[in-house]
């Protein structure tokens, strides 16, 4: 395992955490972004100057009432979700990413450090560059005790996602951006402190998640991170699965697949929105996590495993196709969604689902729950199509991710969204840093009243006497 040594010195009078790499740029990421910064800023400035009034899309009343679905309201160069292809992160599809990103020795799955390098620096990293990020994370991973105190102070039945979001907020006092903003930093330099904060936050995520897991489910038996393990494998190690190489690889796969899904989903958009007010990385990511904690978004992974277990518990034998069909139809009749199916943008089976399916086929083909996932995949799309209203009847990332965790013994499924969060913050921080690189303004769309829309379509006169502004 070749790690590049960093010249890092702690800042005076700090317990831990504030570290600076000596030289002009705080990290290699800083240098890489600095190199690209003038060209990006010029591209955007030119578009705005020459074509600022160019019309991108129209907005219908359906869209105004319909969660701004499909309205092209923002730019993200980090990733793009094509409805018929799935996600491309910095131009690479999921299968491509799994092939090209550097791996740890003996592992089939990429290092999160390499992925983070790519998200931030917009370049495919060399193995040394991937390890450089891993080394940076090792240097910045120490957690202030107060964060643990805050989490311990919460009622025992607090949902792990609430604890996770609170843990991130409890770190906010460490924000370099917030501190430097108070002393009058130039706006063109905001992004550097956002990057610094992003590295500090992401470095701590495996420890934060593992702490919550151990506190809730392992009798507070906390395990120190291992200095020789990469970021993803360290999470496995810290929840007591250090020897399980397959689970380490599952963590590497999981943390890659969930890292980003362009800018419009609830967690990315929430983080971007909050960050646009110059709230720091901690505040923005905590907001993103609060969005991820909703059952229509990231919490779908816990809901999906619950649904699968409910299906299984209904029948003495492994269910038949017809029994699954009946159960799915009943779910819809009860006014519930079938978790893990459908998507606001995708119109195909999510490639992130497929990548996990491949993993399961290879490592756990006989797992009963996995066999159920396969059968559900054969049955549920037709049930959703027959409903006549679901635009995408195919499985998304959450239709299978919990099943893999369950197989490897992580069975406390209300924890699964925390795993999603650990990964998603890699993408969220890349978005908020690049938003500051490009100097994006505070976000402020406009709301209308129902009366105004009625006036537009029926004419003002017809609405006389109707309530409303
Ligand atoms: N089960 C039942 N009904 C569904 C459905 C599903 N899996 N997916 C969509 N529908 C329903 C919607 O609720 C909506 O019903 P309504 O008209 O009565 O309100 C109708 O079909 C049309 O919805 P849509 O345009 O196809 O989807 P959307 O863009 O409004 O919502 C999503 C997308 C993901 C919220 C939705 O498909 C859903 O609720 N899926 C189940 C939850 C889930 O798996 N979420 C995770 C998504 C991925 C992620 O963010 N992690």
What's the CATH C level of the domain at 6-137? Mainly Alpha
> How would the global form be characterised?
globular
Alpha-carbon distance between the termini? Answer: 66 Å
Q: Give the CATH topology of the domain at 6-137.
A: Citrate Synthase, domain 1
Q: List unreliable stretches of 5+ residues.
A: 1-6, 8-24
- Spell out the helices and strands N to C: EEHHEEEHHHHHHHHHHHHHHHHHH
Q: For the largest sheet, list the strands in their spatial order.
A: 3-4-5
The largest β sheet comes out as: 3 strands, antiparallel
The kinds of small molecule bound in this structure are: amidocarboxymethyldethia coenzyme *A
User: What structural class results from the helix and strand content?
Assistant: mainly alpha
Architecture (CATH level 2) name of the domain at 6-137: Orthogonal Bundle
Question: What does this protein look like?
Answer:
- By secondary structure, the chain is mainly alpha-helical.
- It has a domain at 6-137: Citrate Synthase, domain 1 (Orthogonal Bundle), CATH 1.10.580.10.
- The protein is 56% helix and 3% strand.
- It contains 20 helices and five strands.
- The strands form two sheets. It has a three-stranded antiparallel β-sheet. Strands 1-2 form a two-stranded antiparallel ribbon.
- Strand 4 (86-89) and strand 5 (92-93) form a beta hairpin.
- Helix 9 packs parallel to helix 10 and helix 12 crosses helix 19 (416-437).
- The chain is globular, with a radius of gyration of 23 Å.
- The chain starts with 7 loop residues before the first strand and ends in an 11-residue tail after the last helix.
- The model is unreliable at 1-6 and 8-24 (pLDDT under 50).
- Amidocarboxymethyldethia coenzyme *A binds at residues 69, 265, 296-298, 300, 332, 337-344, 384, 389-392, 396-398.
């Amino acid at each position: 395992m070749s790690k590049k040594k960093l010249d890092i010195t702690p800042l005076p009078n700090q317990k831990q955490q504030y570290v600076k790499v000596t030289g002009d740029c705080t990290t290699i990421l800083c240098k890489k972004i600095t190199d690209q910064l003038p060209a990006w800023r010029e591209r955007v400035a030119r578009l705005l100057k020459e074509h600022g009034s160019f019309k991108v899309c129209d907005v219908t009343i359906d869209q105004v009432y319909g969660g701004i679905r499909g309205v092209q309201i923002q730019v993200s160069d980090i990733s793009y979700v094509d409805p018929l292809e799935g996600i491309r992160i910095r131009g690479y599809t999921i299968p491509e990413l799994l092939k090209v990103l550097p791996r740890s020795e003996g592992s089939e799955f990429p290092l999160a450090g390499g992925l983070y390098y790519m998200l931030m620096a917009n370049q495919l990293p060399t193995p040394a560059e991937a390890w450089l990020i891993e080394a940076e994370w090792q240097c910045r991973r120490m957690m202030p005790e107060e964060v643990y105190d805050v989490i311990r102070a919460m009622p025992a039945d607090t949902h792990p996602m609430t604890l996770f979001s609170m843990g991130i907020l409890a770190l906010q006092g460490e924000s370099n951006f917030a501190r430097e903003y108070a002393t009058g930093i130039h706006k063109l330099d905001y992004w550097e402190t956002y990057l610094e904060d992003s590295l500090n936050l992401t470095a701590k995520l495996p420890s934060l998640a593992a702490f919550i897991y151990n506190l809730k489910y392992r009798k507070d038996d906390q395990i120190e991170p291992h200095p020789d393990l990469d970021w993803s494998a360290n999470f496995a190690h810290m929840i007591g699965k250090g020897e399980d190489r397959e689970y380490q690889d599952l963590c590497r796969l999981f943390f890659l697949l969930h890292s980003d899904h362009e800018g419009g989903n609830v967690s990315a958009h929430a983080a971007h929105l909050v960050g646009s007010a110059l709230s720091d990385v901690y505040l923005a990511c905590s907001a993103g996590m609060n969005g991820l904690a909703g059952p229509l978004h990231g919490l779908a992974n816990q809901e999906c495993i619950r649904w699968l277990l409910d299906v299984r518990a209904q029948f003495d034998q492994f269910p038949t196709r017809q029994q699954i069909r009946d159960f799915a139809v009943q779910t819809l009749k009860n006014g519930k969604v079938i978790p893990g199916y459908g998507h606001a943008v995708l119109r195909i089976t999510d490639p992130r689902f497929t990548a996990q399916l491949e993993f399961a086929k290879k490592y756990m083909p006989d797992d009963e729950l996995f066999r159920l996932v396969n059968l559900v995949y054969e049955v549920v799309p037709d049930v959703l199509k027959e409903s006549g209203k679901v635009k995408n009847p195919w499985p998304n990332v959450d239709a299978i991710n919990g099943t893999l965790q369950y197989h490897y013994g992580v069975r406390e499924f209300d924890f699964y969204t925390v795993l999603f969060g650990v990964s998603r913050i890699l993408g969220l921080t890349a978005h908020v840093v690049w938003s500051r690189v490009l100097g994006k303004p505070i976000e402020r769309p406009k709301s209308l009243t129902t009366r105004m829309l009625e006036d537009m379509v029926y004419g003002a006169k017809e609405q006389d006497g109707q309530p409303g502004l």
